[in-house]
Structures are given as structure tokens and as C-alpha cells.
Specification:
It is built from 14 helices and eleven strands. With 480 residues, it is of the alpha/beta class. The protein has three domains: 40 residues, no CATH class; 244 residues, Aspartate Aminotransferase, domain 2 (3-Layer(aba) Sandwich), CATH 3.40.640; 118 residues, Alpha-Beta Complex (Aspartate Aminotransferase, domain 1), CATH 3.90.1150. Strands 1-7-6-5-4-2-3 form a seven-stranded mixed β-sheet, sandwiched between helices. The protein has a four-stranded antiparallel β-sheet with strand order 8-9-11-10. The structure holds pyridoxal-5'-phosphate.
């Protein structure tokens, strides 16, 4: 045993050293991953080894193999997609989660994991101002949270039509339609596919100029088919503008027509934790199910997403399965598999529990407000530069910028191409990381600030970098 202990000790000490190398602030480390695909394959795509090797050799080889292929999304100058970093307590708890290696499927497999999860679930509902009676599941991300919530929706809507979907499947069942807006996230489609609901049963309704689902078109769609079982998918925080649907109006409307209302709040639901932003979510608590990620704005390591369902019975009926060899309900303990698509799984609630404890209510509020302030500063300062245009001023932590080709005769296509080149050029500096998108037919650079580490110093540095890139590229274009 002493031997195993010293093996663990030497390899974990080595891992700690590598981790600290990665996490320590380094002004010169590029945010992008400059190594090419060919280089990474050449280093990592090795022949399968016949003989084993020492764990320290494995670790050192891995670290040198991935060099230049790790995007610094853990740091403060990364603004791509919607990706958060890791809070220190959450990261450390995540390490311990692997160390303890608990199977979080059942209370019996890990009593502590089950209790930590039920506690973290309660805390999340409190932070997000969701009904305390809602059930929940800790899943890999919003994708599986959609799948979990929509499975509960499928159960409830078909049960009302005297159809037992768990027993009968969908063949021969009433068709469920899904009404949502053009701004919905692609993970909704994938959940619909996985659940056998069929993508062709999704109707995308128009959004207004602010990215909010139009009330009139929802009303018409609901009234057109009053008896079709319906799921209405609303959004709290879309990827482009961070738009929030008008919950206070749309949820009562959908409920009046007996629809199940599901809310995609992958990052936007966190606005509930900020008193100055909470008004954006007014009325959201009346929905039937909600999705939010931990690995985005809460800064919990991947993979961490949460599903909440108002109708606990529908949620449980979709997942609970009692085989004779399983031990259930000992002193009313919560068995996670009754609420989750997975059975054996990582005890991922430990990291969430630690993140929330580290921040407290005030720390979560501060994280949300601070990142919004930084997003606003980046968008307004870059937007004020020559040849830059603000397409979307952040109302939370997401904004859109577009860059104009300096030629006075330039077309929108020229601006599209120029915007793409500016994004690529910023990336190539290694100073900051932004991603592009096409928004209402226009190429744009997304600004998304989710990382707890982003500081005013980072914001200054990034704005300086973009200013220099834009100035140089505009000058080049003029002389060409
Ligand atoms: C990121 C995101 C998702 C998908 O979340 P995953 O955690 O990647 O599965 C869904 N909806 C919105 C609005 C998102 O931003």
C-alpha cells in the first residue's frame, strides 16, 4: 500500500505543478491554440502501445503533446462562444470528485454525493428564484437538461391524452408540436430528435427586432390548433443579443392553451441572481421547466448543467426505474437516477456545491454584474473605434460588433469579409479570443464575458489590441 501511496503522491504532485503552470497568470501565453492540426496529430496520434508505462511519463508526455492545443478559456481574455472558467473551490472539488470516484447514480452508491446534490439543487433554486417545489437533475450540460425537461413534458402532455409514452413509445401516439422562436438554440432541435418528437414538428415563430418571440404569432399558432399537445420553448438570454422573451405575457398565454412551457436559460437564467437584472426574468417562475448551465456563467468546470421541472411526478415518471437489485428510498433518500437520463455517473454536484459556497449569494450577484459591466465596456469601447459598429449593446454579458471595410464603396459583403479577417487577425495576436456569427444576414464578432477572472486590466488590454489590429488593417486596405 505504501507503494501505491507514493505512486499517487508523485503523479499528483506532478499534476499539481502542471496545473499551476497552466493557471498562473502569464502575460505572454497566447489565448488561442496556435498549434496546427497536423502538429497535434503528429505529437498525440501515437501507435497504441503494447507495454504500459509509468504514470509520470504518461502525464509529462500528455502535457507536452497538448502544448499549443489548449485554448486558454480558463483565463480572463477569452470571450468566445459562451464559455466560463473554473472557480478555485469548484476546480478543487472537481479534483476530489475524481479522487473519490463515486458513482452518483444512487444514494446507496454514495450517500454523501446524494446529499450534496440535493442541497446544491435547493441552493440553485434559491439563487435562480425558481419554485422551491421544483424537481431537478444534474446533467452534463444544457443539451441534456433540455432532453430531461422535454422528456417530462412529453410524459405529461401524452398522459393528458391517455397515452403512456414510457410503455407504448411514440408510434401511434398523438403528435406533440413545439412552438419556439427563430432565436432558439440548436440544442433544442437535438433534444427533440433524441426524444423522437421529430424536428418537423418544431414551428419557429418570428422574433421582434429585440430578439423576443412575437406575442401575436404565438397567439395565432396556439389558437390555430387548440387540441394539439404543445410545448412552447422560450428563451432567457439568446446567443446574439442576450434577449429575454417576455415571460410575464407569453407564459400565461401558453398556459391558457394548456401548453407546457420550457425555458432555455443556459446562461441567461443567472440574471435572476442580480437584483439589477432580475426584471428581465419577470414571470419566468410560472414556466413548467427550466434549463441552466453551471459550466458557463457560474464558472464550474465542465460538465455541469441543471434541469428543473415544476411537475415532479412527470419528471420522475420519465426516468425512475426500479430493478430488484437496486436499493431505493432508504429514509427517503434521493436517488439521482430517478431524475437523470444517466445511471452510473460522475458526482458532479460536488463542484457546484463548492462554487456556490465560495461565492455566496453576494458573490454570485457580483460575478453576474461584473461580467456584464466588462462585456458592456468591451462592446462600447471597440464600437467607438473608426470602422467599427455596434450591432448589439449587451443588456447582459453578450454583445455584437461589426467591422466596416474602409473603402467608401464597400458593400455589405465586403464588410462581412473584413469582419471575418479582423476576427482572425485578433485571434492571431494571441491577446484575445472572440468568435464570429451571422446575425440577421450580417457577419459579426460576438463578445461574451463569462469568466470570473476577467478584470478591467484585461478589458483595457483587449481594447488596445483590437484598436491596433483595426487601425493596421484599415491602413493596409487603403494603400492596397
Ligand atoms: C450553450 C447553450 C446551450 C447548450 O448548452 P450546453 O451546455 O453546451 O449543452 C443551449 N442554449 C443556450 C442559449 C446556450 O447558450
Amino acid at each position: 500500500m505504501e507503494d501505491n501511496r507514493s505512486t499517487f503522491s508523485s503523479v499528483l504532485t506532478l499534476a499539481l505543478a502542471h496545473a499551476l503552470d497552466h493557471l498562473s497568470p502569464d502575460d505572454h501565453r497566447p489565448v488561442n491554440a496556435p498549434a496546427s492540426l497536423a502538429t497535434l496529430r503528429q505529437r498525440l496520434d501515437l501507435p497504441l502501445n503494447e507495454a504500459g508505462m509509468g504514470p509520470k511519463v504518461v502525464l509529462n508526455d500528455l502535457v507536452s503533446g497538448v502544448d499549443g492545443g489548449i485554448i486558454d478559456s480558463a483565463g480572463g481574455r477569452f470571450y468566445g462562444w459562451v464559455i466560463g472558467g473554473s472557480l478555485p473551490a469548484a476546480l478543487a472539488a472537481d479534483w476530489l470528485t475524481s479522487t473519490w470516484d463515486q458513482n452518483a447514480g444512487l444514494f446507496a452508491c454514495s450517500p454523501a454525493a446524494a446529499v450534496v446534490e440535493e442541497t446544491a439543487g435547493r441552493w440553485l433554486k434559491e439563487l435562480l428564484h425558481l419554485p422551491t417545489s421544483a424537481s431537478f437533475a444534474f446533467v452534463t450540460g444544457a443539451q441534456m437538461a433540455h432532453t430531461t425537461c422535454l422528456a417530462a413534458a412529453r410524459h405529461a402532455l401524452l398522459a393528458r391524452n391517455h397515452w403512456d409514452v414510457e410503455q407504448n413509445g411514440l408510434s401511434g401516439s398523438p403528435t406533440i408540436r413545439i412552438l419556439t422562436s427563430t432565436e432558439k438554440h440548436g440544442t433544442v432541435n437535438r433534444a427533440v430528435r433524441l426524444l423522437g418528437l421529430g424536428e418537423k414538428n418544431i414551428t419557429t415563430l418570428p422574433a421582434d427586432p429585440d430578439g423576443r418571440l412575437s406575442e401575436e404569432s404565438l397567439r395565432q399558432a396556439l389558437e390555430a390548433e387548440p387540441t394539439t399537445p404543445t410545448i412552447v420553448v422560450l428563451q432567457a438570454g439568446d446567443l446574439n443579443l442576450g434577449a429575454f422573451d417576455n415571460f410575464a405575457t407569453l407564459i400565461p398565454l401558453a398556459k391558457k392553451h394548456n401548453a407546457w412551457v420550457h425555458v432555455d436559460g443556459a446562461f441567461g437564467l443567472w440574471a435572476a441572481a442580480s437584483p439589477s437584472l432580475r426584471h428581465l426574468l419577470e414571470g419566468v417562475e410560472a414556466a413548467d421547466s427550466w434549463v441552466v448551465d453551471g459550466h458557463k456563467w457560474l464558472n464550474v468546470p465542465y460538465d455541469s448543467g441543471y434541469a428543473f421541472v415544476a411537475d415532479r411526478a412527470a419528471h420522475r415518471a420519465s426516468f425512475a426505474y426500479h430493478a430488484t437489485y437496486l436499493t431505493h428510498d432508504e429514509n427517503n433518500a434521493r436517488d439521482q437516477m430517478d431524475w437523470n437520463p444517466e445511471f452510473s455517473r460522475r458526482a458532479r454536484a460536488f463542484a457546484t456545491y463548492a462554487a456556490i459556497r465560495q461565492l455566496g449569494i453576494s458573490g454570485v450577484t457580483d460575478l453576474i454584474d461584473r461580467t456584464c459591466t466588462h462585456a458592456n465596456a468591451i462592446v462600447t469601447r471597440i464600437g467607438a473605434l473608426p470602422n467599427a459598429e455596434i450591432l448589439g449593446t449587451p443588456q447582459i454579458n453578450q454583445g455584437l460588433l461589426r467591422f466596416h471595410h474602409p473603402n467608401p464603396e464597400a458593400t455589405e459583403q465586403d464588410h462581412d469579409a473584413f469582419t471575418n479577417r479582423v476576427i482572425a487577425e485578433i485571434l492571431a495576436t494571441g491577446e484575445a479570443f472572440f468568435t464570429g456569427t451571422t446575425w440577421r444576414g450580417l457577419r459579426a464578432m460576438r463578445v461574451s464575458v463569462c469568466n470570473w477572472q476577467t478584470s478591467s486590466t484585461d478589458v483595457n488590454r483587449v481594447c488596445r489590441c483590437v484598436s491596433k489590429v483595426l487601425e493596421k488593417m484599415s491602413a493596409n486596405e487603403r494603400t492596397n
